[in-house]
Write a structure and sequence with these properties.
702 residues; alpha+beta; Ubiquitin-like (UB roll); Creatine Kinase, Chain A, domain 2; 4 domains; 9-stranded mixed beta sheet; 6-stranded mixed beta sheet; 19 strands; binds adenosine-5'-diphosphate; binds magnesium ion
Length: 702
């Protein structure tokens, strides 16, 4: 590493054109302007672009950069970039290094190969990227290639959003506007803006690269499509927070350094519940920057894993029967003068701002539970939500004892008291009493209040944090807009607040659940409460175009009907495509690896039967093993043919919804059938002949 980079403080933000770099390198008035744009959301003045671009270019070239790129997040869920060099040849055969304001502000990639959900016909290839100056520009080093990255949004020629960032930015504006209206109506005269904040905890698995290379399923789909349960899983509860393995710790160290250089505040790291599973959490920041940083985090985890002979699996469910990976989106709203609107303080019952904000979130989540559920619906997450693993597909909110008590008080009239936490005495004379929180934690809730923020835990580990976050911002903004309408016309604000809170506490109490979300009893109870429980991705995506959802996005100017429909189509298509890839990969592995191994082994057993018999001894064991393997082999072969048949049928279905439903109802069951026999074969075949690394090897060997 560079000499300058020796200490963490020097490393942090080393490759970011951050506030201090801007202050140092931009003329004072230009710096002031750009700060105004970032802080006060004033439109960016394009006249300043040349000056800024020039300063950025000098800074980037000093760091060895030769190229720049607009970095954007199309609907693939990944990031996209097209590099251009700074070179500008001169007539005398030499070159200058140039970077104009126009190049900084706008790019024009050929958009025709990105999913657009019909928003743009292929022949209308033009799309635009535009610099999002609220997320800092940075430099990335990929081997010897050093490039200036410009975080950007991506839209069609007609200005329709083709990416994840545009609706996120629009939703931030909506939330800012409506929350500020409410604050002002409540008598806050100092806060000018409200920003949504996000701290996403990222879960992932590490497996040794040598195993990965032998598994086509991991290579092509990111998850194991075959694999018998290992004799040991996660039942010992000994991995969670366990001592870091040295090889893993070295990997984490390097990840941190790389992230710190990019200004990503990687903070927490630990072993997760499942063997070979880990977590990384940054310090929270604005939802916009946090979303960019989460993309960089996923990318860096994969890149650095490679250097250490690992593969980082980000899939929601790489291993059947073992906990999957999610992303916990910690979300809050903070004013420009530093007030966390979800901070209850010591006595929440008389904290009016907090109660209004809390109730707004509760109301929004209850009203738009299906939309929140849909914001995390993808192929991978289907294995977690509503399957035999937490959290369930039912959206509910954990408030904890203290706030639930206040919520009940609100429903019955006015809130007049807050339960206090007290002290924790440990019975050890040398330890002082510890202050105890007024509420225990709940690990099973999909949407939990955790002290001064909400934690949305249904998000999938591969997902962009943009989707669930712009949905949350939008629905909360919409409820706040209604509250602001009431308050702005109220003669007596206090009694109006009381009325609003009572109404919310009465009408939306059904969404509050503090118990164990993993139990059957909760599923039954939720049904009684008429809370939606949409287990399948297809079923969930089908709710997106419900009129109330279209309306909320249009009212808050986050997505138009067409934009929303396009997104839904893209998600449906992605689902079917992914299932199809998984099915084809299974067929490939079954035909070319598993069945041949089974046939080889039955051949060995048949030889054994014959040669043992020829000595005059009865080959009882050999014969019964042969029978079993033969039976399993023909069952697997039958299942394979069954899968082949449905895959062929599926290919003929044109309509996106019908296709996705067919995948759910026919292809996935056929895949499960094949897997079941193949996994049984694995348990009954000579280990030396089995072609795939086993679960035990992948999960426990480091
Ligand atoms: P847990 O104990 O739930 O695993 P941590 O305490 O490690 O979680 O924090 C989880 C994440 O929540 C971190 O990214 C942290 O920065 C973030 N966080 C903390 N406070 C807030 C807040 N007010 N708004 C948004 N995120 C926050
Ligand atoms: Mg957490």
């Amino acid at each position: 590493m560079d000499k300058d980079c020796e200490t963490v403080t020097a490393v942090f933000g080393f490759n970011v054109f951050n506030d201090s770099a801007m202050r140092e390198r931009l003329p004072k008035d230009v710096y002031k302007w750009i700060r105004k744009t970032i802080n006060n959301h004033q439109p960016f003045d394009p006249a300043l672009a040349n000056v800024i671009a020039n300063a950025m270019k000098d800074w980037a070239i000093e760091k060895g950069a030769t190229h720049f790129c607009h970095w954007f997040q199309p609907m693939t869920g990944l990031t996209a970039e097209k590099h251009d060099s700074f070179i500008s040849p001169t007539p005398d055969g030499r070159t200058m290094m140039e970077f104009s304001g126009k190049e900084l502000c706008q790019g024009e990639p050929d958009a025709s190969s990105f999913p657009s959900g019909g928003l743009r016909a292929t022949f209308e290839a033009r799309g635009y990227t535009a610099w999002d100056c609220t997320s800092p520009v940075f430099i990335k080093e990929d081997g010897k290639n050093i490039t200036l990255y410009i975080p950007s949004v991506f839209c069609s020629y007609t200005g329709l959003a083709l990416d994840k960032k545009t609706p996120l930015l629009r939703s931030m504006d909506a939330l800012d506007k409506q929350a500020t209206r409410v604050l002002s109506a409540l008598g806050n005269k100092t806060s000018q803006h409200v920003t949504a904040m996000l701290g996403p905890e990222q879960e992932y698995f590490l497996v040794d690269r040598s195993f990965y290379e032998k598994r086509l399923d991991l290579i092509l789909t990111g998850r194991t499509l075959f694999g018998a349960a290992p004799p040991r899983g996660q039942e010992m509860d000994d991995h969670y927070f366990g001592t870091l393995h040295e090889r893993v710790a070295s990997f984490m160290h390097e990840v941190n350094i790389e992230l710190w250089k990019l200004g990503v505040s990687a903070k927490t790291q630990h072993n997760e519940v499942a063997p070979a599973q880990y977590e990384l959490a940054p310090v929270f920041t604005t939802v916009n920057v946090a979303t960019d940083h989460n993309q960089l985090t996923m990318e860096t985890l994969q890149k650095v894993a490679n250097r250490h002979g690992f593969i980082c699996l980000l899939h929601e469910k790489p291993f059947a029967g073992i906990n999957g990976s999610g992303k916990h989106n910690n979300w809050s709203m903070v004013t420009d003068d530093g007030i966390n609107l979800l901070d209850p303080g010591e006595t929440p019952h008389d904290n009016m701002v907090f109660l209004v904000m809390l109730c707004a979130v509760v109301c929004a989540v209850d009203k738009y539970a299906k939309l929140l559920r849909a914001s995390v619906a993808n192929t991978g997450n289907e294995h977690r939500l509503g399957a035999n693993e937490a959290p369930p597909a039912i959206v509910s909110i954990f408030l904890g004892e203290q706030l639930t008590d206040i919520f009940d008080q609100l429903a019955n009239g006015d809130a007049t008291s807050s339960r206090q936490g007290g002290e924790l005495k440990l019975g050890v004379s040398t330890l002082p009493p510890l202050p105890k929180d007024c509420t225990d934690r709940n690990r099973t809730s999909p949407f939990a209040f955790t002290g001064n923020k909400f934690e949305f835990r249904m998000v999938g580990s591969t997902q962009s944090t943009a989707d669930p976050t712009f949905v949350l911002n939008t629905i909360v903004a919409d409820v706040l807009a209604e509250i602001a309408d009431e308050l702005e016309k109220a003669k007596d604000v206090k009694s109006s607040v009381q009325k609003i809170l009572r109404k919310i506490a009465t009408e939306h109490s059904r969404i509050i659940f503090n118990g164990d979300n993993y139990t059957e009893e909760w599923v039954a109870e939720a049904e009684k409460r008429q809370l939606p429980n949409i287990r399948s991705t297809v079923g969930s995506l089908a709710t997106i175009m419900d009129e109330e959802n279209v309306n909320v996005f249009e009212r808050q100017k986050v997505l138009s009907r067409d934009e929303l429909r396009a997104r839904t189509d893209i998600l449906l298509e992605a689902y079917s495509m992914q299932i199809n890839i998984e099915a084809m990969t299974m067929l490939n592995i079954a035909k070319r690896q598993i069945l041949p191994a089974a046939i080889k082994y039955s051949g060995c057993l048949a030889d054994a039967v014959n040669s043992v018999k020829s000595t005059g001894i009865d080959a009882v064991t050999q014969k019964s093993m042969l029978e079993q393997v033969s039976e399993l082999t023909s069952s697997a072969d039958k299942a394979l043919k069954g899968l082949e048949e449905v895959v062929e049928k599926c290919a003929k279905i044109e309509d996106a919804s019908n296709k996705a439903e067919f995948c759910r109802d026919k292809v996935i069951p056929a895949m499960c059938e094949l897997r079941q026999f193949a996994d049984e074969l694995e348990m009954n075949i000579d280990a030396d002949l089995w072609p795939l690394p086993t679960y035990a090897e992948m999960l426990f060997l480091k």
